[in-house]
């Protein structure tokens, strides 16, 4: 009799990927990590954005010649970042092209420029280092929720600058953070596309013991209900992931009663398990902006030194 993974055809990796690059070490790390998460013959678009120096300094504080010199330097930085990123794909079976966006001419902001490039290239995955252009998290906090919500058009892979794991191969230890929602289930289905049969997978459910729905409900009764829900969610997740790998396990974790939250627990458990990637679904009704603006995924992105793949509920 065939095993549950016998029908699994191996990873179905993205064939079109956009990587945002800049001169930072975080960007270089993201490029190195992303090289191993693309299909053979994939189309890779490297995009570097030179900011408009007029937006970086108070208006009128620099003479025109100084602004021109600053712009030239920003353009050189972008060109050098693109060249270095392209070199990283040397010898890889990929079609690599580059795009330099000069915001002094193009107008707009970094996020809009990336979105435009992603949409034009039909990107199936967007990759960014966590500290690019002062940090993707700055974009999330900086009043750009509307354009970021449109990023839900494809998954987003955030590679933290602090990541010290292996980057010369595909991730071999992947944590799927689940909560029993349809959106988490859809993230499972997308994430298992990246999985080889020998990849180790962990489905993680976190019980938030700091939750107090009502003083009328005893905490032990509430926790028992969460345990029942978590056990069911993990059983369903294991069944789904077992279709992709024979090395699938589950973990029911709990936050501390105080000074702890779900995001901290996800990061703690991922670190303890030596994870090389965390996969999370995003809130289906409000999209990625809701999760990244002050919710669990935003906290995980801030705290984690492990790459984080965010999958919107409609992406399977």
Structure description:
The protein has 316 residues and is α/β, with parallel strands linked by helices. The chain folds into 2 domains: 145 residues, HUPs (Rossmann fold, 3-Layer(aba) Sandwich); 139 residues, 3-Layer(aba) Sandwich (Rossmann fold). 38% of the residues lie in helices and 20% in strands. It contains 11 helices and 10 strands. The protein has a 10-stranded mixed beta sheet with strand order 3-2-1-4-5-10-9-6-7-8, with helices on both faces. Helix 9 crosses helix 11. The radius of gyration is 21 Å and the shape is globular. The two termini are 29 Å apart.
SSE diagram, text form:
Layout: E1 16-20, H1 25-34, E2 42-50, H2 64-88, E3 94-102, H3 103-106, H4 110-121, E4 125-129, H5 136-141, H6 145-149, E5 156-159, E6 173-177, H7 182-191, E7 200-207, H8 219-241, E8 247-254, H9 262-272, E9 277-281, H10 288-292, H11 296-303, E10 308-311
Parallel strand pairs: 1-2, 1-4, 2-3, 4-5, 6-7, 6-9, 7-8, 9-10
Antiparallel strand pairs: 5-10
């Amino acid at each position: 009799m065939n095993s549950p993974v016998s029908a699994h055809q191996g990873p179905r990796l993205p064939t079109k990927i956009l990587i945002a690059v800049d001169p930072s070490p975080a960007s270089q790390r993201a490029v190195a990590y992303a090289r191993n998460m693309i299909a053979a013959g994939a189309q890779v678009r490297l995009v570097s954005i030179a900011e408009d120096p007029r937006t970086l300094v108070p208006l009128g504080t620099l003479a025109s010649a100084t602004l021109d010199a600053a712009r030239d330097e920003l353009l050189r930085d972008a060109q050098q970042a693109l060249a270095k990123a392209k070199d990283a794909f040397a010898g890889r079976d990929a079609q690599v092209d580059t795009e330099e966006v000069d915001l002094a001419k193009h107008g707009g902001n970094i996020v809009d420029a990336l979105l435009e490039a992603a949409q034009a290239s039909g990107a199936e995955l967007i990759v960014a280092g966590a500290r690019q252009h002062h940090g993707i998290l700055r974009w999330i906090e900086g009043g750009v929720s509307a354009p970021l919500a449109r990023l839900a058009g494809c998954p987003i892979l955030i590679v933290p600058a602090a990541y010290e794991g292996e980057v010369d191969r595909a991730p071999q230890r992947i944590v799927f953070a689940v909560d029993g929602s349809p959106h988490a289930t859809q993230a499972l289905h997308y994430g298992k596309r990246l999985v080889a049969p020998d990849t180790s997978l962990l489905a993680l459910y976190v019980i938030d013991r700091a939750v107090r729905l009502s003083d009328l409900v005893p905490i032990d009764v509430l926790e028992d209900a969460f345990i029942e829900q978590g056990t069911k969610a993990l059983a369903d997740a294991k069944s789904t992931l077992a279709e992709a790998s024979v090395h699938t396990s589950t973990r029911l974790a709990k936050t501390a009663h105080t000074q702890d939250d779900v995001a901290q627990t996800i990061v703690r458990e991922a670190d303890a398990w030596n994870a090389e990637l965390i996969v999370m679904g995003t809130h289906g009704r409000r999209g990625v902006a809701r999760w990244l603006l002050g919710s669990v995924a935003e906290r995980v992105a801030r705290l984690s030194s492990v790459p984080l793949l965010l999958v919107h509920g409609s992406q399977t």
